[in-house]
């Protein structure tokens, strides 16, 4: 039996490049017709938005002006929100350091920007279902010894990690 996709009612896209931000919202809205989208140009706008609005999932760019993605993630995880949103870091950085920092700060996923809208919809569904998504490109670059071989759009169920692997993620 095929698992049913789980999509959020609300998504906030925090990205400083307007063409990428509006394009991502446009193309994702074609796949997630029932989802309401909001946008933020930087980490400060993201935090302001969360003070006033409920959000189930955030697609958070790593590099933004005024308050970067990692800093914004730390702030939002410390906020007293009715419900903490799921967060997928969206980046062009194929560097383990940013992955580990993102996971240690409470991200639920780490995806490179080169995915199609359909692939992002799959990533969103995986994360909303409680899975941790780590982009296969970064997993295969330097982390094969930690994660093993991968196939496109593969995800990590947190229960798949050994205690030692979980400790590495939380460094």
Textual characterization of the structure:
- There is one protein chain.
- It is built from eight helices and six strands.
- It is of the alpha/beta class.
- Helix 1 packs across helix 5.
- The longest helix has 14 residues.
Keywords:
alpha/beta, six-stranded parallel β-sheet, 6 strands, 171 residues
Topology record:
Layout: E1 10-14, H1 18-31, E2 36-40, H2 43-52, E3 57-61, H3 69-78, E4 86-91, H4 96-104, E5 109-112, H5 117-128, E6 133-134, H6 136-141, H7 144-147, H8 163-169
Parallel strand pairs: 1-2, 1-3, 3-4, 4-5, 5-6
Helix pairs in contact: 1-5, 2-3
**For the CA atoms, what is the radius of gyration?**
15 Å
Strand percentage lies at 15-25%
Query: Mind summarizing the main beta sheet?
Result: 6 strands, parallel
Instruction: Kindly state the number of beta strands.
Output: 6
What's the average pLDDT? 83
Shape: globular
H/E series, N to C?
Answer: EHEHEHEHEHEHHH
The class by helix and strand makeup works out as alpha/beta
Helix coverage percent of residues? 40-55%
Report strand order across the widest sheet: 2-1-3-4-5-6
Query: Regions with pLDDT < 50 over 5+ consecutive residues?
Result: 143-159
Quaternary class = single chain
Distance between the termini: 37 Å
Helical segment count: 8
Summarize the structure.
The chain is α/β, with parallel strands linked by helices and 171 residues long.
């Amino acid at each position: 039996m095929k698992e049913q996709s789980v999509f959020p009612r609300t998504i906030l896209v925090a990205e400083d490049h307007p063409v990428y931000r509006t394009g991502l919202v446009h193309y994702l809205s074609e796949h997630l017709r029932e989802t309401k989208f909001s946008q933020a140009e930087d980490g400060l706008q993201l935090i302001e938005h969360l003070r006033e609005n409920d959000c189930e999932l955030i697609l958070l760019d790593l590099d933004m002006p005024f308050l970067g993605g990692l800093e914004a993630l730390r702030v939002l995880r410390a906020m007293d929100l009715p419900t903490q949103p799921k967060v997928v870091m969206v980046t062009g950085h194929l560097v383990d350091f940013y992955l580990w920092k993102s996971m240690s700060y409470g991200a639920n996923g780490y995806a490179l920007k080169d995915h199609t809208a359909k692939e992002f919809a799959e990533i969103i569904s995986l994360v909303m279902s409680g899975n941790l998504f780590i982009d296969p490109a970064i997993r295969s670059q330097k982390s094969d010894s930690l994660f093993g071989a991968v196939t496109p759009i593969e995800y990590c169920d947190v229960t798949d990690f050994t205690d030692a692997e979980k400790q590495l993620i939380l460094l």
